[in-house]
Specification:
There is one protein chain. The protein is an alpha/beta fold and 541 residues long. The chain has two domains: 11-51 and 69-312, Rossmann fold; 318-536, Alpha/Beta hydrolase fold, catalytic domain (Rossmann fold), CATH 3.40.50. It is 29% helix and 15% strand. It has an eleven-stranded mixed β-sheet, with helices on both faces. A three-stranded mixed β-sheet has the order 1-2-5, with no helix packed on it. Strands 6-7 form a two-stranded antiparallel ribbon. Strand 6 (73-74) and strand 7 (81-82) form a beta hairpin. Helix 4 packs across helix 5, helix 11 packs across helix 12 (385-410) and helix 11 runs antiparallel to helix 15. The radius of gyration is 23 Å and the shape is globular.
């Protein structure tokens, strides 16, 4: 194994030499980091909005000792525009550059609603993964309009999904260079959280990714349909001062000249759309014409029935109070409660919102409010916080259930289900960020504090159950990456985590202070969603 004598190792890649740095993790584990490795040409000037181009080889040694800019975006923390259009870089952390056998690779795609997020160790420090023999890689890719603009006019060459095509190019680079970093090119795990998980689900569905990864983990982000709003390109241009008609070429020419800060900070959603809870105008789309690099030519629900990835193992899950995230200003901002009262359809999953007319949306919203809150939309009060949290959590779990049913119907490989419920008083950073210490729950993103070092992370006393949970989570995630089976030597004595079966209860691993293999507690609460999908004529899988 590595003795870490080399302080700034140089690695030859397919495109040139990169120099990394020796780092120490939060618990003093050493590892090598190579940050800011380019995998594509900077998508600037005439390349803006276009699919990515292979990076040109460089001469000499490229300094990769620190992360570069994230994709330009409005920061969810500071509300300021941060990052750069020049963002197509990878970050690689390697436990050791020399070992008896090559290491498994774990490739992470960050969340952030397709419009924000930072792929680097500034946001998601891989320190805990670096206690195990793995390689951790994160991918910087385009976000917002720069990553998800789409035009129907084929002469423009912008069918959409540029931000997802970035990832396909990155995965090709990773596969080609795995050996150079002591990695096994035939043992790559792709995983993501929230919109990053939705992205992984799309990468599982398309033919171009076959062979680029060998198993996947979906964490709290699922969508069988893309659910994109129409005409967002025209609306964006109009908001920024465009006065012409909705003609693709003219809209494109206007946006191509526009300042990138103005593009990413343009807020053109109407009050009614915001009232209904819409927040992601730019997201993946089904491409309207075929190109050599086409990414998505049908809805995921259709592609998943016959995809190559039905033969690879999958792990998936969400948190016990995942839906609390959608209520973040419920108690502090009176307008949020008013929006729920005015727009009961705000509680609908986006597929039901997208697949129905206004009258149906409203009726279904009322029905869900009745079922979960025993109240009409206009009767909702702050006292319904817990019931609404459950409703939004079931929205996520029902989307997850649709993926599960698809896997059980069409897949020949194991699917492992988990539920994360560790409710720490001081280590569930997203609940604390949005709610302070007034509420106890395990909300969206709370689980990431147990596999990554976040800006708010602090060093734990090793006797604490939070530290035990970190060790167990990382052991299971890396064991799955190494062997396709998440039962790690550390956790096997406590629990036998079995894959899902198509008969009997939905069995899952409950990750809490203890690990337990149980039937899914929320299963019966999904009946109302099943019924509404049937009413709307939307297939489950």
């Amino acid at each position: 194994m590595s003795d870490y004598t080399e302080k700034s190792p140089v690695v030859q890649t397919t495109h040139g030499k990169v120099q990394g740095i020796l780092l120490k993790g939060l618990y003093d584990d050493q590892f090598y980091a190579f940050d800011g490795i380019p995998y594509a040409e900077p998508p600037l000037g005439a390349l803006r909005f276009k699919e990515p181009h292979d990076v040109k080889p460089w001469h000499g040694i490229r300094d990769c000792s620190k992360p570069l800019d994230k994709s330009i975006q409005v920061s969810t923390y500071t509300k300021l525009v941060e990052g750069s259009e020049d963002c197509l870089y990878l970050n690689i952390s390697v436990k050791t550059l020399k070992s008896n056998k090559p290491l498994p690779l774990m490739v992470y795609i960050h969340g952030g609603g397709f419009k924000s997020g930072d792929p680097s160790r500034r946001a998601w420090g891989p320190d805990y993964f670096m206690r195990e023999n793995v390689i951790h890689i994160s991918i910087g890719h385009r976000l917002g309009p720069l990553g998800f603009l789409a035009f129907k006019d084929p002469s423009l060459g912008i069918p959409g999904n540029a931000g997802l095509k970035d990832m396909v190019l990155a995965l090709r680079w990773i596969k080609a260079n795995a050996v150079n970093f002591n990695g096994d090119p035939d043992n790559i795990t792709l995983f993501g959280h929230s919109s990053g998980s939705m992205t992984v689900q799309l990468l599982l569905a398309i033919p171009q990714t076959e062979g680029l990864f060998h198993k996947a983990i979906l964490m709290a982000g699922y969508s069988m349909e893309v659910n994109r709003l129409p005409d967002v390109e025209y609306r964006l241009a109009k908001h920024l001062g465009y006065e012409g008609e909705n003609v693709d070429r003219k809209v494109f020419e206007f946006l191509l000249k526009e300042d990138s800060s103005r593009l990413v900070s343009a807020d053109f959603l109407t009050d009614a759309e915001k009232g209904k809870g819409l927040s992601m105008p730019f997201r993946p789309n089904v491409e309207s014409y075929v190109t050599p690099g086409a990414f998505l030519l049908a809805e995921p629900i259709v592609l998943m029935r016959s995809t190559w990835s039905n033969s690879i193992p999958l792990m998936l899950g969400a948190n016990t109070d995942d839906g609390l995230m959608y209520l973040s200003e419920f108690l502090t901002d009176p307008t949020v409660l008013q929006q729920f009262q005015t727009y009961p359809e705000r509680v609908l999953p986006s597929t039901l919102m997208n697949g129905t007319n206004t009258a149906q949306q409203r009726a279904m919203g009322v029905e869900l409010c009745e079922y979960f809150c025993q109240a009409h939309g206009e009767d909702l009060t702050l006292g319904h916080l817990r019931a609404l949290t459950e409703l939004f959590t079931i929205n996520t779990l029902h989307s997850q259930e649709r993926v599960i049913r698809s896997r059980l119907a069409y897949s020949q490989a194991p699917t492992y289900l988990y539920r994360f419920g560790f409710d720490s008083p001081d280590f569930n950073f997203y609940r604390i960020r949005y709610w302070g210490h007034s509420i106890r729950a395990v909300t969206h993103v709370d689980e990431l504090g147990y596999i990554y070092v976040l800006p708010a992370t602090f060093k734990l006393d090793k006797s604490r159950p939070e530290f035990t949970t970190i060790c167990r989570m990382v052991a299971m995630w890396t064991q799955f990456a190494a062997t396709s089976n998440p039962n790690a030597p550390l956790t096997q004595p406590f629990v036998d985590w079995k894959p899902l079966t198509s008969t009997g209860d939905r069995m899952l691993l409950d990750i809490n202070e203890d690990l337990k293999f149980i039937s899914q507690p929320e299963q019966s609460r999904m009946e109302c969603h099943d019924r509404l999908y049937e009413e709307a004529g939307i297939k489950m899988f």
